[in-house]
Specification:
382 residues; alpha/beta; TIM Barrel; 2 domains; seven-stranded parallel beta sheet; four-stranded antiparallel beta sheet; 37% helix
């Protein structure tokens, strides 16, 4: 397949309601979508990246600029024939995190196009030793007032989901109330994780320890940066009580994953497709964790559209040994989507493979235009 045109879109994805975490107030996400168009325009490949400046240093503007520069690389496969070309292209980048969202979006678009050309779903391009035919996603409880927390918990209960991730902030009282509400609404069968997104300090972390035990929290995700005073003490306190400490924002690259394994403070790592730089890099991280004493989960980035949700589904299906899976929140979170298909999970968080080739979704091109925050950048190959 000869790629003749590349369109790069910046989109604002509005949420149905506020979904906030400790490091950002959530009313929308800003994403970048790549569209590859074949020579007869009948085959198109799509990819998505969500830049998180506080983690990789990227913004939508830098991602657009990076992707446009990728097209000048000698390794970019304008004549796309096999998956090894995509891996050669991705492997040509440094191992740093600076371009991860951009690499993810472009790799995804190339894989989607190749899958459509070869009439294969994405899973066929990867090693399948850990392939499963279904996924059970967990559900999040955001930061919010009592009414919002109760509403989310009742939505989770109605779906019969028992694995939840509760967002925590810097207010002990609010966090305590949120955990109490979640436990009351969801009952003792609920597996509870908490996620402060790295905003706690030593004193606040240890203040939470009694309620972490009281509400049987089994995983604490990235409570603070690991160079903050008191981190090692808190990590040891959790270990003694058999509560898993999970790395998240501190694990954007394979180098970081290896360091985390060597340091032995964490018991788990949260692997996110976009933050890791796409499938090639994420699966290398997962394989590295598999060879270590640690376990892993598949995470997602807040505000993913159906394109990235579909890609995340593939990564989850390739990872039956993941402790938890997060993602596919589309119809529950977004007012509009980039895909015609609803990629959301169903009752009990269950979801399976998407039908169709490549990512398995069709794109709502009208929404691509309606959600755009600026004119799309178009690159033609003459």
């Amino acid at each position: 397949m000869r790629i003749k045109k590349v369109n790069i879109y910046q989109l604002a994805m509005p949420f149905k309601g506020e979904f906030s975490i400790s490091i950002r107030k959530g009313v929308q996400s800003r994403i970048v979508v790549v569209e590859l168009i074949g020579e007869d325009q009948s085959v198109r490949g799509y990819g998505e990246g969500i830049p998180i400046k506080s983690v990789t240093g990227e913004t939508p503007e830098t991602v657009v600029n990076d992707i446009s520069q990728f097209l000048d690389k000698p390794s970019f496969p304008w004549e796309l024939e096999n998956v090894s070309q995509i891996w050669d292209f991705v492997d040509g980048f440094s191992d740093e995190k600076d371009h991860n969202a951009a690499i993810c979006a472009m790799e995804m678009a190339l894989l989607d196009m190749l899958g459509k050309v070869k009439q294969q779903p994405l899973v066929q391009f990867f090693q399948q030793s850990f392939l499963t035919d279904s996924v059970h996603y967990g559900a999040p409880v955001p930061l919010g007032n009592a009414q919002q927390v109760t509403m989310f918990c009742r939505w989770i209960k109605a779906l019969a989901i028992t694995r939840i991730r509760v967002k925590m902030g810097t207010s002990y009282d609010r966090n305590h109330h949120t955990l109490d509400t979640a436990a009351s609404e969801l009952g003792i069968d609920c597996e509870m994780r908490i996620d402060p997104n790295g905003v706690w300090d030593r004193d606040l972390a240890f203040k939470h320890l009694p309620i972490i035990q009281k509400y049987a929290v089994n995983i604490v995700e990235e409570p603070m940066e690991r160079d903050v005073p008191g981190f090692r003490e808190f990590a040891e306190a959790l270990r003694v009580k058999d509560i898993a400490l999970m790395a998240c924002e501190s694990a954007p690259t394979l180098k970081d994953v290896r360091k985390i394994i060597e340091e032995k403070f964490y018991q788990m790592i949260n692997i996110k497709l976009c933050r890791s730089g796409g499938f090639r890099r994420a699966l290398r991280m997962i394989d590295t964790v598999r060879k270590s004493p640690l376990s892993f989960q598949i995470g997602c980035t807040l505000g993913e559209s159906g394109i990235l949700s579909a890609a995340g589904r593939t990564l989850c299906l390739l990872s039956k040994d993941a402790v938890n899976c997060d993602g596919s929140y589309d119809r529950f979170l977004l007012k509009k989507n980039t895909t015609m298909e609803d990629v959301s999970f169903g009752q009990k968080g269950k979801a399976g493979p998407l039908k169709g080739f490549g990512l398995g979704v069709h794109i709502n091109r009208l929404n691509l235009q309606d959600l755009a925050t600026s004119p799309n950048l178009t690159v033609d190959r003459h």
